[in-house]
Specification:
The structure is a single chain. Helix content is about 40%, strand content about 15%. The chain has five helices and five strands; from the N terminus they run βαβαβαβαβα. A five-stranded parallel β-sheet has the order 2-1-3-4-5, sandwiched between helices. The longest helix has 18 residues. About 30% of the residues are buried.
Length: about 150
């Protein structure tokens, strides 16, 4: 979110793979744009974070969510459904970033109002390029809604 006040962009990464978390965090932290990246590793934590319930009572509302579909506990499809069904959360852009290339997952994600769907490549260089593309588009080109809380 490019705010005139110079506030950093708040990103919530909902991802359980430590390698993907580390790589994504590293790429985002190298960004030209100021930002803060927070990570939760399952769907239950994600909804607690977004709804600011214990232990996330002081969590900042994210400007952008990067969501893996294949999560332990509550999966990403259920998380996406809850986010987009909640009047307090539905305006937060959600980028589905997952290893699934299944057409049913793509279709279902868009039916649940994902803002875009990206399949994670297994190749490190390609994954790095994907993160840079997300960063370039979502953090510098797109105008995100102002934080309401």
């Amino acid at each position: 979110m490019r705010m005139t006040s110079g506030s950093p962009i708040e990103i919530l990464l909902i991802e359980d793979n430590p390698g993907d978390v580390e790589l994504t965090r590293d790429m985002v932290e190298r960004s030209k744009v100021r930002n803060v990246i927070n990570n939760v590793s399952d769907g239950i934590q994600a909804m607690a974070y977004l709804r600011r319930t214990a232990p996330y009572g002081n969590a900042k509302r994210p400007d952008l969510i990067l969501l893996d579909l294949n999560l332990p506990g509550k999966d990403g499809r259920a998380v996406l459904s809850e986010i987009k069904g909640d009047t307090q959360l539905k305006d937060i852009p959600v980028v589905v970033l997952t290893s699934s290339e299944a057409e049913t997952d793509v279709l279902r994600s868009y039916q649940l109002h994902a803002n875009c769907y990206i399949s994670k490549p297994v190749d490190l260089a390609k994954f790095t390029n994907i993160i840079r593309s997300i960063e370039d588009f979502w953090l510098t080109v797109v105008k995100l809604p102002r934080r309401s809380g």
